[in-house]
Every structure is written in C-alpha cells, then in structure tokens.
Amino acid sequence: MSIYEDTRGRLWIATGGGGLNLYNREGDNFSHYTEKDGLPNGFIYGILEDETANLWLSTNFGLSRFNPETETFRNYTASDGLQSNEFNMNAYAKDKDGNLYFGGINGLNVFNPADIKDNPYKPPVIITNFLQGGQAAPNQPQAELIQDVKLTWEQNDFSFEFATLSYAQPAHNQHAYMLENFDNDWNYIGTRRDGRYTNLPGGTYTLRIKGSNSDGVWNESDQRIQITVIPPFWQTWTFRILVVLTLLGGGVTAYQMRVRNVQSQNLKLEELVRERTSSLQKRTKEIEALYSGNEKIIRAPTLEQIFQAIVDVAVNTLHADRSVVFIWNEQKQQVEPRVSHGFAPKTLEVLALVRGEGLIGRVLETGNAMVVSEVDLTALKPKIRSAIAAEGIRSFAHLPIKVDGQIIGIFNIGFTRPQAITEDTVRLFTALVQRAALSIENMQLFEKTKDVAVIEERNRVARELHDSAKQKAFAALAQLGAVNGILKHDPTKAEAHLLEAENLVYDVLQELTFLIQEMYPMALKEKGLETMLREYVFEWKNRNDIMVDLNIENPQPMSLEVEQAIYRMIQEALANVARHSQAEQVNLSLVYNHKTITVKVQDNGQGFNPANKPNGMGLCTITERAEEVGGQTSIKSKYGKGTTILIKLPFNGNV
User: Fold this and answer.
1) Domains and CATH numbers, the chain
2) Most confident stretch, 180-184, 518-522, 560-564, 614-618
3) Is 518 buried (19+), middle (13-18) or exposed (0-12) by CB count in 10 A?
C-alpha cells in the first residue's frame, strides 16, 4: 500500500493484508510483523515517523504505534478518540511541528505524539467470586479474603471471577491467570474477567491472577490462592506403597510356586523317563526273543519242527504260559492239536473240534484272529470247560497260520492271568506266525520245485530283513545305554535318547509285523506290484491316520527284483513319514515311461534340513536300494514345507 524510509534509512513496506514489512538491505530479505506480533490488523494504509523514531500506522482496525527498537505495538481505537477504526488510503501526513494527520471514513485525526502519554499505573487485582458447581464455595470467607481452598477428589473443579482496579478506560484492562503445577504458562484472556478448571488430579496448586491498565501496563504482583485437591485413597503414597509391597509379595510367592512346579515337573519327567526306559527295555527283550525264535524257525527243516519251534518260542521266550498248534485233519474233518508246549496230554485229547465248532472252529472258518481277554467258563462246552479249568487258562488268543492264502493251522497262546493279551502281544505273536508261514512256504517250494534260485532269493530277503532290524535293535540298545548314564543329572536329554530308541524299536516291530509277510518275491509275483501297493497303502493310512493319494500311471511288467526294490523303497519312505513328518497328507505316484520309472513320495509335514540328516537310516536305505537296481534318489525338504523324495530307475519297457 505504501513504502516509507525512516530517519535511519530503513525501508518499511505497508501491505494490504500482509502486515508491516522491513527490508534488510544487507541480507536482501524481509522481516514481517503481523497480528500475532501485536499489530491490530494486517491491512495498513499509511506509515509516519514521530520525533522519537516510533512509527505510526493507520490500519483497518485503528491506529498503531510501533517501536522498532523493542518491536512492540501500542494500539488505539475509536474508544480512544479516533474518528473511526477504519482509515483511508493516502490520507496521512506530518507537518513541521511534528503533528500527524490521519484521515478516515468519519473524518480526520490530528495529534502530536509528544502529547500522548501512557498510563503508568499498575492496577491491583482482586477476586470477586470463587464458585463450585456455579455456587459460592461452602465454608469459605468472602472471595477477596480467600487465601487457600481445599477440595475433595469428587469435587475437583471450580470457577472464579476477578476485577482489575484501574478506572481509566476500564473496558481496556487486560487479564491473565495460571494454575501452577498444572499450566505451563499464563492464560492471556484479554478483557474477560473469569476462569475455570475441571477434573484436577490430586495435588497442591497455586492460582495466580494478574491484570494491566488500558495502556497495557501489567502489575506483576499477582493475586494468589493456594488450591489443594485431596486425592482418592488409591492415589495416595500409602496405597501405592501397599500395592508395591503386595505385588512384591505376590511375585515372591509366584516365584516360589514356579520353583516348586519346576521341581514337580522334573520329578514327573524323571518318572516318565523311568517308565519309558522300562517299556523300551521290555520291547528290546521281546525283539531279542523274536530274533531267537526266528533263528529256530529258519533252521527247522520240517513242518512239524517249525510248529514245535513257534510253540517253544511262545512259552520259553515270549512268556506265554501255554501254546499249541492245531491243524486241519482232512480225513477226520476236524481240527486237532499237532504240537504243544505246557499243555497236559489229557487236555489235548478233548480239543479236537469240527469246522465251525468253538472259537477254534470259527477261526478256521473265517480266517480271522480271535482274542479272549478273560475266559467265561460258563460259556464253554462241558468237555472244553473242564480242560480249560484244569489248565488254569484265564486269557488266550487264536491266530490263523496262512500259506498261499490257505489256513494250514491255528496257533494258540494261553495265559493263566486275565487281561494278559494286549495289542503289542498280538502283534508280536502275529509276526512269529508270519515268519513260520514264510519258512513253510520256502520248505514247500523247495520240496515241490527244487527251485534253488527262488529259495536263495527268499532266504536273502529274510536275511536282509533280519540284518536291517538287528541293526536298529542294536541302535536302540545304544540309546538305552546312553540314557543310563545321564538319567539322573539330565532327564530332558535322557528323554530325547528314549524317544530315538522308541522310534527304532517301533521300526523293528513294524518290520516284523507288517513287512515280514509281504516283503518276499512270491507275494509280488502272485499279486503284482500295483495290487500289493494299493493293499499296503490302504493298511498304512488306516494304521497311521494319514491320508494317502496313490497314483499309478501306465503300469508295465518288470523284473521281480525291480518290483521288490520299488515296493521296499515306498515302504521305507512311508515309514519315515509316519515316524518323523507329522504330516496329514501324502501324495504317492508311480509313473512308467519308455525310459524311466519315477517314484515320488511327497508329504505336507514339518520338513527338515537335508544337510543335517545326510545318513538317516531310512533315507540311506532308500538310496542303497535304488543304486542296487541302477537308480538314483533326490530329497528336497524345508522346515514347515514338507518333504519330497524322488526316485528314478532306468526302464526300457522290459526291465
């Protein structure tokens, strides 16, 4: 709007809304002064300098005196005698006597700045009202006499009114207040004369109030009142100390309980380790017994001696109280005892039964094993009842002996105590029966065909199974030996050894119970690889509660050696899944083409780092079997992403 150069050569620029600006020649920049610096309005019409170097500014809201040295403004309005708060553009001048002329919308103001004096009086402030909830605070003296106030935490709000005792233009008096320990600075409220505080926390505060006269001269000797808010009991130091002590006491108690709990858990862990050690030792003894029986069965040259071997092993090694093998007498059309161990001859004389008679006859008819956990003598025929009672039999089992799908005998084990037969017991004796059936088939094959090559192959399979299981049994014994050395001082590590031993023992039992019968060439030769795989997968997924998706594409005839290798590698891969993967789904595929047979076993289990398990027994066995038939394997696994075993064998359409 205008540019003015003062007596010191400074250039001042008045703007139409941007306030007052000073051009700095040396820095070639501007300093700005606006409403926030005290200017009454940002629209400036004119600038004049008085004899004391103050600048007078006509604005859209009165006249303002600016001191460049202190950078402060003193503002005047119509209430100070101006013609109006609004002035006009280019309507300002200064005469030789120092008089200043400013024209506005209602006339002209003429004055000499030397005649304008500020009021030096510093007015005192008094409190005129102290209120709670809009009412005078109870039990308090007159407002101007109040020096301290106590408030409860439920009534922690108040308001107050005050007056500044300056009567020269009292409407222009300014006010400010603050609450020490609550406010960070003064609250400047202009011409208002009241204040309010709410929701004060417990504590001691000082209310300070000060005022200025119409010329902005402040009385710094402010009015003060001490305010005390009594906190609730839970905010007192006594309560806080009590809470801290309670928490400390609770922490100590919790720590002691934790220590006792850890000690209790250690005792339970030690007991669990002892129980598992005992269980593993028992299983290891059973495995040793089964191997001993297996050696006797292998050496038995005749059917009679094979039967005698299994009943002797049942009683002498596997701790049954009685054992007998029944065979079908075609001429008499009845099942009758052939060999026994522990039974009195008179008992055997009454145990000859026709097909379908008694439990033995029913097993012969159905081909299914039967277990009686506790004998009910009243349900038996008189002649059998007396025989069983005389022998003291309280529980027993009948297991069919099958050769080439035909039942040639029934293996019986009896115990003089009830509930003596468990799932492990049945599995153990079933393995014994299956090994006997294998020996009988070998014997019959030798007698019928004299096919030495087939016999050697079957014996090789039996020896291979024997050696594999024996290695795992020795490994389990080594783990148990390690447990004995660390059980007392490190039960957690001992438990890890026990888990490994338990897995190894489980492997052995699995091989003996589920693989003995199936891991020989004749079954593959009779049924074919596809049928054998589907039967095995069906039984495996039911036993392990893991879903299996089996896919066989373009099956082709192969040599018995290759089919046997594929069958065993898939068995070993699925055994690894059951033992280690914690998987819920397995995808198994067998794909034939004109050059390659591809076997893929993929699970969605927990995975592992192949670099950390390069010599795992199961994976190593798979690799060895593949190499024996000219194939190769690869294993991919990642934590949380499952495991994939890929086996590739050469195939030319007539392997």
Assistant:
1) 2-115 (2.130.10.10), 125-235 (2.60.40.10), 518-655 (3.30.565.10)
2) 180-184
3) middle
In 3-state terms, what secondary structure has residue 389? helix
Note the pLDDT of residue 154.
Answer: 79
436 phi and psi angles, rounded to 5 deg: -65, -40
Distances (CA, A) of 105 to 17, 58, 95, 113, 288: 19, 12, 21, 22, 122
Q: Quick one: tokens of 401? A: 């002996």
User: Are 78 and 62 in contact, with CB atoms under 8 Å apart?
Assistant: yes
Q: What is the pLDDT, as a whole number, of residue 476?
A: 66
- The C-alpha atoms of residue 191 and residue 609 are separated, in whole angstroms, by 80
Q: Please, what is the Cα angle at 40 between 35 and 41, to 5 degrees?
A: 75
**Residue 115 clears pLDDT 70, i.e. is over it:** yes
At 455 the pLDDT is 53
What is the maximum span of the chain, computed from C-alpha positions, in angstroms? 159
Three-state secondary structure string covering 601-638: EEECCCCCCHHHCCCCHHHHHHHHHHHHCCCEEEEEEE
Question: Which residue in this structure is represented by tokens 């024997």?
Answer: 466
Q: Among 467, 406, 443, 442, which residue's Cα sits nearest to residue 522?
A: 442
Kindly list the distances between the CA atom of residue 309 and the CA atoms of 187, 338, 375, in Å, as whole numbers in the listed order. Answer: 108, 12, 26
Q: HSE on the CB side for 258, CA within 13 Å?
A: 6
**Cβ neighbours around 50 below 10 Å, total:** 18
How far, in Å, CA of 539 to CA of 443, rounded? Answer: 28
- How far is residue 150 from each of residues 32, 137, 157, 204, 233, measured CA to CA in Å? 48, 10, 11, 9, 16
Task: Determine the Cα–Cα distance for residues 655 and 647; give it in Å rounded to an integer.
Answer: 16
Residue for token pair 């019968």? 517
pLDDT of residue 614: 47
As a whole number, the mean pLDDT across the chain is 84
Residue 286 one-letter amino acid: E
Q: Find where tokens 């080439």 sit.
A: 404
The percent helix, strand, coil of the chain (3-state, each to 5) is 40, 30, 30
Find where tokens 């294993």 sit.
Answer: 635
The type of residue at 57 is L
For the chain, the first-to-last Cα distance in angstroms comes to 107
Q: Classify residue 336 as exposed, middle or buried by CB count within 10 Å of its CB (0-12, 13-18, 19+).
A: middle
Q: What are the tokens at 621? A: 């066995």
Tokens of 295: 């050696």
Would you put residue 394 in left (φ > 0), alpha (ψ -120 to 50) or beta? alpha
